[in-house]
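Complex 400.
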Amino acid sequence: MSKLSSTLYLCLRFLVFLNTISKLLFAANSRTYPADIQVLKDLKHGVDHRSIAPGSCLSFWDFSLDPCDNIFTEHFTCGLRCDRIVSGYARTLDVSDNSFSGSIPDSLSNLTRLRRLGLSRNSLSGEIPVILGSLSHLEELYLDSNHLHGPIPSSFNNLTSLRRLEIQQNDISGEFPDLGSLKNLYFLDASDNNISGGVPATLPTSLVELSIRNNKLGGNIPDNIENMRFLQVLDLSHNILSGSILSVLFDHPSLEQLTLSYNNFSYLEVPGDKGLNSKLIALDLSYNKLRGFLPAFMASMAKLAALSLEHNKFTGMIPAQYALKAAVPRTNTSSFERLLLGGNYLFGPIPGPLLGLKPGSAQVSLADNCLYRCPDAFFFCQGGDQKSLVDCKSFGPAIP
Ligand SMILES: *[C@@H]1O[C@H](CO)[C@@H](O)[C@H](O)[C@H]1NC(C)=O
Ligand SMILES: *[C@@H]1O[C@H](CO)[C@@H](O)[C@H](O)[C@H]1NC(C)=O
Ligand SMILES: *[C@@H]1O[C@H](CO)[C@@H](O)[C@H](O)[C@H]1NC(C)=O
Ligand SMILES: *[C@@H]1O[C@H](CO)[C@@H](O)[C@H](O)[C@H]1NC(C)=O
Ligand SMILES: *[C@@H]1O[C@H](CO)[C@@H](O)[C@H](O)[C@H]1NC(C)=O
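Predicted structure with 2-acetamido-2-deoxy-beta-D-glucopyranose bound:
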C-alpha cells in the first residue's frame, strides 16, 4: 500500500469509528418524535401525488429511515432539519419551490417545535389552517406564491415568536386580523392578494419592512404608523387608499423607502420640520390625485435621491430647489438621481439649472405637463408631448 492510500485507509477507519461512537452516543436521541413522523407522512399523502415530480424533495421521503437520524448518514431527509437540543423534533420544514398541489394539512400543527415552515412557490390551495396559530415556536412562515384563499387566520396573533411572515402572491381575502401581539415580527409581506378593509391600526411596532402592495385596502393610513419606530420600507402601492399622506411619514425616524403609488390620495401634509430629519431615500407617490404645488420641502430632505410624483394633479412652477438638487452635485446631501414629474399640470419655463443636465447623469422626466416649452432636444422632455392649451386651461384657468 502506498503512503497516500494507507493514510486514506486510516482516515476511513477513523470516520467509521466516529460514526459508531456517534450512533452509540446519539442512539437514544436521534429517533424522530413519532407524532412528527406521522405529520410528515400525512403531508406527503395529502399532496396530490401527480404533482410530486421525480427528483423533488417529497419524492425522496420514503420513511424507511428515521427522518431525523441524518447526522452521520448520507440519507438525510430532504427539506427537514431536526432540533439538536430538544432532540427528535422537526425544527425546520421547507418544501418550497416545488409544484405541489393540495391543501395545507391541519396536522402540521403537530410539529410543535417547528421554527421555520416553508411552503413557498407551490400550487397549494384551500384556506390557511387556523390551527397553524398554535405553532408557538414558529419564527419564520413562508406561504407565498401559492393559490391559498380565504382570510389570514386571526389565530396568527398567537405566533408571538414570529419574526418573518410571507403570504404574498395568493388569493387571500378578508380584512387584516389584529397582529399586534407579534412583538418580534420585523418582516411582513402580504402583497398581491385580495385583502380588503383598512390598513390595520394594530400592526406590530417591531416591523422593519411592511409590504401590502396590490390589494384592496381602502381608507386612510392610520397615524399610529408613527409608532413603528424601526420601519424602513413601506409599500402600500396599488390599493385604493385615500385622504392625506400623513406628515409622520416625512419626519419618521427610520423610514427610507416609501411607495404609495397607484392609490387615491388627494392631499399631502407638510412635516413640521420641513423634512430636514427625514431618512427617506426613495419616495414614490406617482399615480394618485395629489393637488397643489410641488412640495418644496422634498428638496430639503438630505438623503432623498429618488422622487416620483408622476401622474398626479400637481400644478404651479417647478421649484428651483428641485432643479438644483437634480443638477448640482452636493457635498453633504444627496442629489436627485431620479426626479419624475411627468403627467401633471406644471407650467412656466424649464428651470435654468436643468438646461445643462446631461443624459445619463440623472433620470428626469417632465413630459406631459403644461410647460411653456419643452423641446425633445432635452432628454427630460422626451416620452410625451406637453398637454394641449385647452387641457391646461380647463384644469387651471390661471395657467398661462
Ligand atoms: C396530532 O397528532 C395526534 C396523535 O398522532 C392525532 O391524534 C391528532 O389528530 C393530530 N392533530 C391533527 C390536527 O392532525
Ligand atoms: C390563541 O391564544 C388564545 C388565548 O391565548 C387561545 O384561546 C386560542 O385557542 C389560541 N389559538 C390557537 C389557534 O392556538
Ligand atoms: C376579491 O374580493 C372581492 C370581495 O372583496 C370579490 O368580490 C372578488 O371576487 C375577489 N377577487 C378575486 C380575484 O378573488
Ligand atoms: C377616489 O377619491 C375620489 C374623491 O377624491 C372618490 O370620488 C372616488 O370614489 C375614489 N375612488 C375610489 C376607487 O375609491
Ligand atoms: C454636513 O452634515 C453634518 C451632519 O449632518 C453637519 O454637522 C455639517 O455641518 C454639514 N456640513 C456642511 C458643509 O453643511
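Confidence is low (pLDDT under 50) at residues 23-29.
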